[in-house]
Amino acid sequence: MRELAPRIVSVVVPAGKYVLGDPCYAVRDDLWSEACDTSDCFTRPVAMVTLNGTRHKVLGFSTKWGDGTYLGSDGFRYGVDAGLIGLVPWELAKDNFDPELSTIIEFDRETIVTNDEGFMNFGRVLIETDSDSVLDEDEDEE
Predict the structure, then answer these.
(1) What global pTM score does this model have?
(2) How distant, in Å, are the alpha carbons of 6, 8, 33 from that of 103?
């Protein structure tokens, strides 16, 4: 039996302001089905969503173990309800932004973001979604 190399997914993100977290919290409910349809429910990490005639790219990386709360290198506890952590452009997310669910991140230049089997790199923020980094319910409530 041959062991396969780990699957690393990389996406080039344009400079700009984004909401970092589970995209299901930042994308309006009436646009969520379009995001899912255009990315095959995020089996492809980039979805397209149209708001006021403008197309926006939404990034969603699958977490290694699905829903839960994951600690980022920035100290933020990222709650996940759709099994995803990603980036939503500020223009698309600003009316839905909740600072208890997501953070804001800005890139001053084009940036490569990656997901290496649940180890996610969003520029200065690293989020590991491996089982050792999942916060349990008791920790989440403290």
Answers:
(1) 0.88
(2) 28, 24, 23
Is it the case that residue 134 has pLDDT exceeding 90? no
Residue bearing tokens 């990603």: 86
- In angstroms, the CA 85 to CA 78 distance is 8
Q: Which one, of 40, 6, 25, 8, lies nearest residue 113 by Cα?
A: 8
The whole-chain average pLDDT of the chain stands at 89
Residues 6+ apart with CB under 8 A from 75: none
Structure tokens at 65: 């173990």
Task: State which amino acid sits at residue 18.
Answer: Y
Residue 112 near residue 12 (C-beta atoms within 8 A) = yes
User: Any idea which residue has 């989020």 for tokens?
Assistant: 127
pLDDT range class, residue 65, cuts 50, 70, 90: confident
Domain boundary assignment for the chain: 9-141
Phi, psi of 102, deg, nearest 5: -145, 165
The amino acid sitting at 5 is: A
